[in-house]
Amino acid sequence: MPAIVLFDGDCNFCDASVQFILNRDSTGNFHFASLQGEAGQAIRKRHRIPDTVDSIVLIKDGVPYLKSDAATRIAGGLDGNWRMLRFVRLVPKPLRDFGYDIIANNRYRWFGQKETCKLPTPEERSRFIDQTLNQPTHQ
């Protein structure tokens, strides 16, 4: 079962992060859903992720990972040298999350909010969880 990345659908940095993952995940390990969408809300509820969580979340093997735990586990599943970033988990969690929070709390100011969305290719579209069925879309 693929891991699910929940992301802030209004954030330019989060959108760029999704594109980054798509381009470095040749095996299709990750599927995606916006935190604001119906599927994202249903996944959030199923995994008891508080509404206050408004940045990237990883659901892997039924376990939700937040903040730097999500980011380092995602990096560990990417192609190439990006996997080395998983070793950032050796840094104490409070320190990792402090750095993560600086970026997350300033992401709209530094990177802006989306006004339009990039249309995914048919291959990319199959990796986004359908808003109504809460299942990956297949085309």
Descriptive overview:
Strands 2-1-3-4 form a four-stranded mixed beta sheet, sandwiched between helices. With 139 residues, it is of the alpha+beta class. The protein is 39% helix and 13% strand. The protein is globular, with a radius of gyration of 14 Å. Mean pLDDT is 84; it is low at 131-139. The longest helix has 19 residues, at 93-111.
Labels describing this entry:
single chain; 139 residues; alpha+beta; 4-stranded mixed β-sheet; 5 helices; 4 strands; globular; disordered C terminus
Note the topology.
Elements: E1 3-7, H1 12-23, E2 30-34, H2 38-46, E3 57-60, E4 63-66, H3 67-76, H4 93-111, H5 122-125
Structure summarized in a few sentences:
By secondary structure, the chain is α+β, with helices and mostly antiparallel strands.
Write the H/E string, N to C: EHEHEEHHH
Secondary-structure-based class equals alpha+beta
Strand fraction equals: 5-15%
Query: So what's the overall shape?
Result: globular
The value of Rg in angstroms is 14 Å
Low-confidence stretches: 131-139
- Largest beta-sheet characterization: 4 strands, mixed
Strand order of the largest sheet: 2-1-3-4
Tally of separate helices:
5
Mean pLDDT: 84
Q: How far apart are the first and last residues' alpha carbons, in Å?
A: 19 Å
